[in-house]
Each structure stands twice: as C-alpha cells, then as structure tokens.
Amino acid sequence: MAYFEHEGCTLHYEEYGHGAPVLLVHGLGSSTLDWEMQVPALAAHYRVILMDMRGHGRSDKPRQRYSIAGYSADVLALIEHLKLDRVHLVGISMGGMIGFQLAVDQPQTLSSLCVVNSMPEVKVRKPGDYLQWASRWILGRLLGLRNIGRILGRVLFPKPGQADLRRKITERWATNDKRAYLASFDAIVGWGVQERLARITCPTLIVSADHDYTPVAMKESYVKLIPDARLVVIADSRHATPLDQPQVFNQTLLEFLNAVETTPQDH
C-alpha cells in the first residue's frame, strides 16, 4: 500500500510482480479491490499497478468537481511519480474513459490500451438517453449507497451461483462517499473524445461483454475509428466482466499483452 500527492490530493496505489508495467484503472464507485481476480494472473508476468481514483477507495475525496480529464491527469501523475516510460493501461467502464482520455492527450505514455465495457463518449442526445441518465441521477440521490449496491448486484450478477459476488458489491458500494460518488457520476455525463480517437497510436484491445449495458454494435462502430484496434466479445458476461468471467478475461488480456510485448513497436 502506497500513496502519492497530486494537486493537493493524496492518492492510493498498489504494486505487485515484476516486468513491463500494467496499470489497472477501476470504474465508477469501485476501487482497486475489483481487480482481485486479475492481480495474481498478471503479476506472474508483469509489474501490476493499481490505483484508487480520487473520490474512491483509499484515495482522498476532495469536495470539488471531478472530470475525466482530471482523473487522466491523476493517472499521468502516477506514471511520472513511478518514473515509468510508458505503461499498458487497462480500464473498465469509467476507467476505460480515463484510458481513452489519456490515449488521445498523451499517446506517448501508453504501450497499449485495453478498454473493457466502456465507450469514448457519453453524450445525452435522444429522449431515451435523457431518461436513462436522469433515472440514474435521481436514484443516486434518493437511495443509500448500500441499496444502490444491492440493486447493482442483482443486475450484474443475477445467477444463483453468484451470491458471493452480489454480497461483495453490496458491501463495497456501501463504503463509498456519496458526495464523491455523485461528483464522479456527473463527470461522466457529457464527456467525450470520440472525434479524437484517430490520435491513439498504441495497440488497442476493446473488450465487450455480450450482455453489457451498451450493445456490442456500439463498440463495433467506434473500434473502426482507432488505427490499431480490435474487438473481443466475451460470452455469458455482463458489465463486470473481470469479476464474472475472470479466466476468459485474464487469458484474453494476457494474450494481448504478450503479443504487444513481443512485437517491435514504432514509437
């Protein structure tokens, strides 16, 4: 367990293993804990770095507006703090948005990018979009975080054999700071870098669950905008793919990372 300072905020990170650095970035309302199924598999081959984004986990929760660009700046600050040349970045959901932001703003910092169940913009355009985000916004303010976690658990892990995962997400969500959680939610809505995806220069893997919140077709449309990208769809999975299909996800990610590491890159 380690900490560093950036722009007056103390941020928590962890490191495991040795080798080329792989930085794991969690999603909204989550923390380093949600990569528990990945750390052992990755750390056998790589230097695995996890961080809690501001407002989450063991990092500070400053009373301020949060933004995806600000989160990306925190990730860049950690890379510089650790004196790393470039990293393999893996981000899920909001973490994927942070990865997209860093990849278009600072492409030279990434050896590769893996984005899991995410998208390069969250623009509210159609009536259905307004309804979807307004309902989440209202629920976030009306319900306690434990209740939100309980609802999410049933949505993400509906199978009878997933009771332990449902319990974990309920308990973990309950530990969130509500104000920071809502500020992070607000950071997502309206954000986007889709028009700049051509700036991403590193090999890119887009991972989509077959039952993610957003359809596979949406990922198929934006993967074409990234110069060196491919899409992998993981079957029988929902939004939390690293937790509900850890073996398949780990194998997919390791094959991608190993291929990048053994292929000469033009920088």
From TrEMBL:
<feature type="domain" description="AB hydrolase-1">
    <location>
        <begin position="21"/>
        <end position="124"/>
    </location>
</feature>
<protein>
    <submittedName>
        <fullName>Beta-ketoadipate enol-lactone hydrolase</fullName>
    </submittedName>
</protein>
<dbReference type="GO" id="GO:0016020">
    <property type="term" value="C:membrane"/>
</dbReference>
<dbReference type="InterPro" id="IPR000073">
    <property type="entry name" value="AB_hydrolase_1"/>
</dbReference>
<dbReference type="Pfam" id="PF00561">
    <property type="entry name" value="Abhydrolase_1"/>
</dbReference>
<dbReference type="GO" id="GO:0016787">
    <property type="term" value="F:hydrolase activity"/>
</dbReference>
<dbReference type="InterPro" id="IPR050266">
    <property type="entry name" value="AB_hydrolase_sf"/>
</dbReference>
<dbReference type="InterPro" id="IPR029058">
    <property type="entry name" value="AB_hydrolase_fold"/>
</dbReference>
<keyword id="KW-0378">Hydrolase</keyword>
